[in-house]
């Protein structure tokens, strides 16, 4: 399948990987929106949160996001985990991914 995140998961495209287990991989965003910006993805392709139905996978994805934040020393300052679902919400890559953002303050509500 011609999916850039599948290619990153298969190591066919380069990425700065900061986390990996047998189901999930975390790598730095190419266009970071905060001092720390990591994308956490399932290794198996799923288009989006709306298309996901594997509770174990979703749980592992979120736990991996928390582990990335821990490793990147984001816990004390706080961090944000974002899943953009659908084009209208800003999703541009249709392989499920959680953004882990930290190292600066965040406004609420989000833009
Ligand atoms: P979305 O807009 O779908 O929520 O997030 C997609 C993210 O993927 C964007 O933040 C974008 O910068 C990032 N991105 C797109 N292509 C690549 C790539 O080839 N490598 C990496 N590391 N990040 C990418
Ligand atoms: Zn994919």
- Indicate the radius of gyration in whole angstroms: 13 Å
The total strand number stands at 5
Poorly predicted sequence stretches spanning 5 or more consecutive residues = none
The biggest beta sheet is recorded as: 5 strands, antiparallel
Q: Helical content, roughly?
A: 10-25%
Give me the strand/helix succession: HEEEHEE
Bound molecules: guanosine-5'-monophosphate, zinc ion
Structural class from helices and strands? alpha+beta
Our measurement of the CA-to-CA distance between the termini, rounded to an integer number of angstroms, reads: 32 Å
- Helical element count? 2
* Overall pLDDT metric: 97
Instruction: Please indicate the percent range of residues in DSSP E strands (runs of 2 or more).
Output: 15-25%
Strand order of the largest sheet: 1-2-3-5-4
Shape: globular
């Amino acid at each position: 399948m011609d999916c850039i995140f599948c290619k990153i998961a298969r190591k066919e495209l380069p990425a700065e990987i900061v986390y990996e287990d047998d189901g999930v991989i975390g790598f730095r965003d190419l266009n970071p929106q905060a001092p720390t910006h990591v994308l956490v993805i399932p290794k198996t392709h799923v288009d989006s949160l709306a298309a996901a139905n594997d509770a174990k996978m979703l749980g592992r994805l979120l736990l991996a996001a928390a582990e990335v934040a821990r490793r990147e020393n984001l816990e004390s300052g706080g961090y944000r985990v974002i899943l953009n679902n659908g084009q209208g919400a800003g999703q541009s890559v249709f392989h499920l991914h959680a953004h882990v953002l930290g190292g600066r303050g965040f406004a609420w509500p989000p833009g």
